Amino acid sequence: AILCIIGLGVPFFIHAESESKLQEIRQQLQEEREQIQELEEEKEDIDEQVYSLEQELDSLDSEIENSQKELEATNAQISGIQYELKDTREYINELESIITEQRGLMEKYINALYTEPNPSLFQLFLTEAQLSDIMGSVKQTEAMQESITETIRIIESKEEEIRQEKKHLFDKEEELLSLRKLQEDQKRMLVSKRKE
């Protein structure tokens, strides 16, 4: 009977030991399931963060691209204004040359009109044999006076044009300075966005 009890005790003991191991394995399995669940939740969080960062990166790339386009447009405007300034300066120089030339002509007309003896109408009658010669001298004098008047008008017109062109030049130089400031701001912003 002792054997039986011992015999009965061994299977009971083996069964109790197996039951305990089985319970322990179940416990470990449950803990591993919980760890897997936690890891899956962490993975979802990380996936969301990655997606959010990718969206942010795409947004920054788009902002950088737009900033580069704005900078290129500003550079094109600056180049256009620089060419316009160059053309305006050349035009002002041409106008100044015309004025100098017109002043030279006016000086010649005035010298011709006032340095040559200007006979009176009576003296013309005495010295000129024909009335047509007298009329020619009078017409020549009138033509010189008209030339002087026309030259003065041209000079005044060109001087006014120069004033307007210089004002235009000043305005464009101001615009150029403003665009260069904008260009520097755009460059700084672009560098800042690239660092992000």
Provide a quick synopsis of the model.
The chain has 196 residues and is mainly alpha-helical. It contains 3 helices and no strands.
Walk me through the structure.
Helix 1 runs antiparallel to helix 3. The longest helix is centred in the first third of the chain and has 114 residues, at 2-115. This protein starts with a helix and ends with a helix. By secondary structure, it is mostly helical. The protein has three helices and no strands. 95% of the residues lie in helices and 0% in strands. It has helices at 2-115, 121-127, 131-195.
- SS content category: mainly alpha
How much of the sequence is in beta strands?
A: under 5%
Shape: rod-shaped
Distance separating the two termini: 85 Å
Helix content: over 70%
Residue runs with pLDDT of under 50 for 5 or more positions: 1-13
Q: Number of helical segments?
A: 3
Overall mean pLDDT score? 80
Strand and helix order = HHH
Main sheet makeup: none
The count of β-strands is 0
Based on CA atoms alone, the radius of gyration comes out at 51 Å
Features:
disordered N terminus, rod-shaped, mainly alpha, 196 residues, 3 helices
Give the SSE map.
Layout lengths: L1 H114 L5 H7 L3 H65 L1
